[in-house]
Amino acid sequence: MKILVDTHAHTIGSTHAFSTVHDYLTVAKQRGLEAFAITDHGVAMPDSPHLYHFINMKIFPRSVDGIVIFRGMEANILNENGDLDVEEPLLSKLDWIIASFHEPVFPPSTKAAHTNALIGAIESGRCQVIGHPGNPNFPFDYEAVIEAAVANNVAIEVNNSSFLESRHGSEPNCIAILEVAQRLNAKISIATDSHISFQLGDFTQSLKAVERVGIDEANIVNVNLGRFVEFLSLHHKSVVQALSKQ
């Protein structure tokens, strides 16, 4: 299986990351990607870019040298209600919103609180995917959350970084989440969570997990650009119309 759209990448706008949009574009071309999303941390994170960083994503060309650049954010889940640190009018101008737990914003709590927060974020209509759900610091009811995701056309992320240097102890949770996702026919996004351009497009560990569980390729939303745009159309994203005019 080959993944041609990377849906999770951080620039130097998130100060613990080390690459520019141009760096990512260079690697995307080298590795044969069709598209990638820039998803710096939402403003509630201590190292996040200023709000203007996201507002000014409107200057991104829709594509450069045939590679599409999606305008996104890794939004923070703020509380048990599932509120996110992204509001209108910005919300509707971004193509792709990841909703994630981060310890500096939402201190780990109870399984019930995490479950409620995730369901709240999913049902809010503000996000298209749940980011790095395997984090062992944030256990949740897999069945309840994935049922909500299926009902609301929200994908579950398989985060390559969670199998490597981030969120140690995630792997068994990621596998268990994938097993529930497979049974419930959930949509899946495979992502690198790149913090430097050399990571872009390297989905090795995520693909091993997906293949181990036997996830149907038809349920992976970012196999290619066409599939990803089709998924975004379910969320009425303006990028769908913009790309259709190119």
From TrEMBL:
MF GO annotations: phosphoric ester hydrolase activity; zinc ion binding
InterPro entries the UniProt entry points to: PHP_dom (IPR004013), PHP_phosphatase (IPR050243), Pol/His_phosphatase_N (IPR003141), Pol/histidinol_Pase-like (IPR016195)
Cellular compartments per GO CC: cytosol
GO biological processes: bacterial-type flagellum-dependent swarming motility
Organism of provenance: Echinimonas agarilytica
SUPFAM superfamilies attached to this UniProt entry: PHP domain-like (SSF89550)
Taxonomic superkingdom: Bacteria
Identification of the protein by name: Phosphatase
Domain Polymerase/histidinol phosphatase N-terminal: 5-79
